[in-house]
Backbone:
């Protein structure tokens, strides 16, 4: 059914990982879905994470066994379903005398290896840092460490691929569409959606609301008429810094800080190291969170105490800051607040069913969506299809998890004029959909204009047509990370190109 008078089964507020994950799952089960995102997909917290698909070793200390088990189970499953944007990493955890004792680290890692059904990822091993390559750049006082497995994810692309798959299954996905009012009238929800590009407002009807607006969740509840305005989300800011590559190998580090927190140093975009994160309570509009000088100094200090050569604020080439939408469980310190998700169905009140999503991790988004669907099924009745996302590749991920090199070789042979670094980059973003990006190009010239680095017109057109990209930031910071190292002239040229409506037809 289509048209202005359609009543959708679900109206989802928010195009972060949770909104898009729920949209995909619901659309695949036969529900009609409308998702509105006020900015770009993944423009909230979901592009600003540490980008780990991980159990969260640290959460064991807070007895979050349910969360850690579920997250660990998801690691290999998500890797299988999206091997282009998710891949294994090895983490080096040095033992620091005076902080957590070695027996405790060993116990935590034993649990980490065994409670989550690990099958393909390699197990933990003990390291002699005086002999191993990974010890070379470290403070010589560090003699011993451990190495364990987790996975990396391109967080923003995970969101977009969920949205793409949802749309391929008939969900309506609208970006730059802000929900300004929600009312229950004549037996269904009426949602006012403000188009931030052309200034018009459209009213959409739906049987059920899913509020997946992440750190804005309380604001949306308060703004909606007749709803409960109780404060349930705890906003915790976390910042990252990016510096030129610190290590010659591909391993990551997890360092313990003296304040009980931990800090990651992760190889990033070939030429960089990503360092994070902080935890501090946040007030105000989440869109305004920025990395402070204090956080930069803290992160540089935390990592430098482990290194032979310190990292200073002058080394920092980029920073980003996100706001965790944690369920407020009353924990005193921000770092102790639960990372688990909580779904609250609001059925009392004058309106129909309304589901609020609190907390959650990128890692557990698929399970969160399944839990949401249980509540949606119960609220809407009918005969929805069964759970299905556990065995369904995301767009471009329909190749074996260990087959990235094979896919890259196939692309290189089909498009011999591409440099291997470009092939690698495209395969890591688009997987098998690289063929759709490149089409029947027979030469570099066929890919059109180049906008700095190896960003071609063909790629931009693909992002506009299939991935809702509208601005240069959408392309440079969320669909790709080509913004790192792009010149100002190239950014301006890209912005002009994207504004030119005729160029994108
Ligand atoms: P968001 O991504 O914020 O999405 C909500 C969306 O709702 C936003 O895009 C917003 O624009 C939109 N919205 C709000 N109001 C409206 C409205 N009125 N109308 C329309 N749209 C609206 N998790 C991991 O698994 N691994 C990690 O390594 C990890 N690291 C993290 C590090 C940091 C510093 C932070 C902050 C989080 C980290 N997380 C990690 C957690 C994870 O990033 C978040 O839990 C997750 O991204 C939250 O997704 P979301 O969809 O709920 O929220």
Residues:
């Amino acid at each position: 059914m289509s048209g202005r008078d359609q009543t959708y089964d679900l109206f989802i507020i928010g195009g972060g990982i949770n909104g898009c994950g729920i949209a995909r799952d619901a659309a695949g089960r036969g529900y009609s879905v409308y998702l509105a995102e006020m900015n770009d997909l993944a423009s909230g917290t979901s592009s600003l994470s540490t980008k780990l698909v991980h159990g969260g070793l640290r959460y064991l200390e807070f007895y979050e066994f349910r969360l850690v088990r579920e997250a660990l189970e998801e690691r290999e499953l998500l890797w299988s379903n999206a091997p282009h944007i998710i891949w294994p990493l090895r983490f080096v955890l040095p033992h620091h005398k005076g902080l957590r004792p070695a027996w405790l680290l060993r116990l935590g890692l034993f649990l980490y290896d065994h409670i989550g059904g690990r099958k393909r990822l390699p197990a933990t091993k003990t390291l002699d840092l005086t002999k191993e390559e990974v010890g070379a750049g470290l403070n010589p006082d560090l003699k011993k460490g451990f190495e364990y497995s987790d996975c990396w994810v391109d967080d923003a692309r995970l969101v977009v691929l969920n949205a793409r798959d949802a749309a391929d299954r008939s969900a309506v996905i609208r970006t730059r569409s802000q929900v300004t009012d929600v009312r229950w009238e004549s037996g269904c929800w009426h949602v006012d959606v403000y188009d931030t590009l052309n200034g018009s407002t459209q009213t959409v009807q739906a049987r059920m609301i899913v509020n997946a607006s992440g750190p804005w969740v309380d604001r949306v509840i308060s703004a909606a008429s007749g709803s409960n305005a109780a404060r349930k989300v705890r906003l915790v800011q976390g910042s990252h810094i990016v510096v030129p590559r610190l290590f010659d190998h591909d391993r990551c580090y997890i360092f313990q800080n003296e304040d009980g927190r931990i800090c990651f140093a992760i190889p990033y975009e070939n030429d960089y190291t990503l360092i994070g994160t902080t935890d501090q309570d946040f007030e105000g509009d989440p869109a305004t969170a920025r990395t402070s000088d204090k956080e930069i100094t803290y992160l540089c200090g935390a990592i430098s105490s482990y290194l032979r050569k310190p990292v200073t604020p002058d080394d920092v080439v980029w920073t980003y800051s996100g706001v965790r939408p944690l369920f407020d469980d009353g924990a005193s310190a921000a770092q102790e607040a639960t990372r688990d998700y909580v779904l609250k169905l609001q059925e009392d009140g004058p309106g129909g069913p309304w589901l609020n999503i609190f907390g959650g991790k990128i890692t557990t988004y698929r399970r969160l969506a399944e839990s949401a669907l249980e509540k949606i099924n119960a609220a809407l009745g009918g005969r929805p299809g069964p759970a299905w996302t556990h065995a369904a590749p995301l767009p471009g991920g329909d190749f074996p998890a260990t087959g990235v090199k094979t896919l890259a070789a196939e692309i290189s042979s089909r498009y011999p004029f591409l440099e291997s670094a470009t092939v690698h980059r495209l395969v890591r973003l688009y997987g098998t959909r690289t063929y759709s990006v490149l089409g029947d190009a027979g030469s570099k010239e066929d890919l059109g204009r180049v906008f700095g680095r190896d960003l071609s017109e063909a790629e931009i057109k693909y992002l506009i047509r299939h991935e809702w990209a509208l601005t240069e930031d959408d392309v440079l910071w969320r669909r790709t990370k080509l913004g790192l190292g792009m010149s100002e002239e190239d950014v301006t040229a890209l912005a002009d190109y994207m504004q030119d409506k005729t160029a994108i037809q």
In short: Residues 65-81 form the longest helix (17 residues). The chain has a mean pLDDT of 93. The CA atoms of residues 22 and 369 lie 5 Å apart. Residues 13-19, 36-39, 43-46, 48-52, 178-179, 212-216, 220, 238, 277, 322-325, 360-363 surround flavin-adenine dinucleotide (CB under 6 Å).
